[in-house]
Sequence to fold (470 residues):
Amino acid sequence: MQIHTFVNYYKQTMRNILIIGAGRSASSLIQYLLNKSDKENLHLTIGDLSLELAQRKTNNHPNATPIHLDIFDEKQRQSEIQKADIVISMLPAHMHIEVAKDCLTFKKSMVTASYISDTMQSLDAEAKANNLVFMNEIGLDPGIDHMSAMKIIDEIHEKGGKMILFESFCGGLVAPESDDNLWNYKFTWAPRNVVLAGQGGAAKFIQEGKYKYIPYHKLFRRTEFLEVEGYGKFEGYANRDSLKYRSVYGLDDILTLYRGTIRRVGFSKAWNMFVQLGMTDDAYPMENSETMSYRNFINSFLPFHPSDSVEIKTRLALGIEQDDIMWDKLLELDLFNPNKIVGLKEASPAQILEKILNDSWTLQPNDKDMIVMYHKFGYELNGVRKQIDSKMVCIGDDQTYTAMAKTVGLPVAIATLQILNGNIKTPGVQLPIRKEVYLPILKELEEFGVVFKETEMPYVGYNPDKLSGN
Fold:
């Protein structure tokens, strides 16, 4: 009888975390919470459309229950949310909102790694009224970028300093030991996002108090060079909207604000070849794409000529010579192969390009990925201009516990436990820019190799000479 009572009490004290979505970014998230589950009395319910995937992620752990979960099955979704103490949604961003509404109904706090949409923001008042924490943008970018930036910005403000420059760069790359192609790049995350990067309007930022815009067709020829000790030289191209977080970060009066994406030097110039040819366009389907060869795909964007080969027409269109490394990069992708077939019906140029790049840029079983983040803070204190550079490099363990999975999933997991334990208390729809959130999370992330190295240096400001291209 006493044993029975103890078991019932133990079950009652177990705290249930519902994780919706068991994809790649959930690996480190689930591992972290399972490692904490005995000490913290946690039980994980891991729901995914693929039961087999959810089962693989639990690895038969006694404190986890994998389930088949269809997010569009309202009855099942609400039943699982009602049983949870807190909900983590690792779904695509547009699918969070129904989960969030159910969390309001059943008074459950919620965590996502996604950007705060207007619809999510509209739930803020109700979340506050119910004393619920709806933490968003708590992955890598957005997420670790917010926290690591706000830590330094707050420290500068607390010393009485005035921010005059903030530049922030982040990129998912292949680790040096797995870097074995001429592009120095492999897909470490959603390939489609790479192909469509920069589209949808001009990149916008502010430089020395002046608004600046870079149209898409110029974007990949305007790069800033970055040096990371031990890892060499990188380049950064501008994100579409660098000003989105100006007010959020408390930087309304800043003179220079620039956010960008990191790649190895030379990638952007090579990628620009696809942009100039029109191969990244996602606005229209191509006729007969299902039976189109790779060679015919690139030829579709070149002028007709009765005798010139596709290779010659390509070099003429791009203004490159046969001994140019740019030409070798195109050859490496097997773009001119007449026997490789696209095999995608009514596909856009961007979809076809993604298919071609996947042939060459997919991480192999023994490959490792790498995350690089780089912040620059320029500020004025007691009439003297100073600068702090903050750099972070994270290398993945393997194909399951990648650097991307660690840097996206671990902040989500740590924040979830902090909320569950009452350490993060401020209610409402939010991102991780307050000390009660970012200080403990950044500190714990260091245990997992996510460490920022900060260097103080003389202020150099924004140097136009560092820009390459147009």
In short: The chain has 17 helices and 17 strands. Residues 277 and 301 are 6 Å apart (CA to CA). Residues 1-11, 463-470 have pLDDT under 50 and may be disordered.
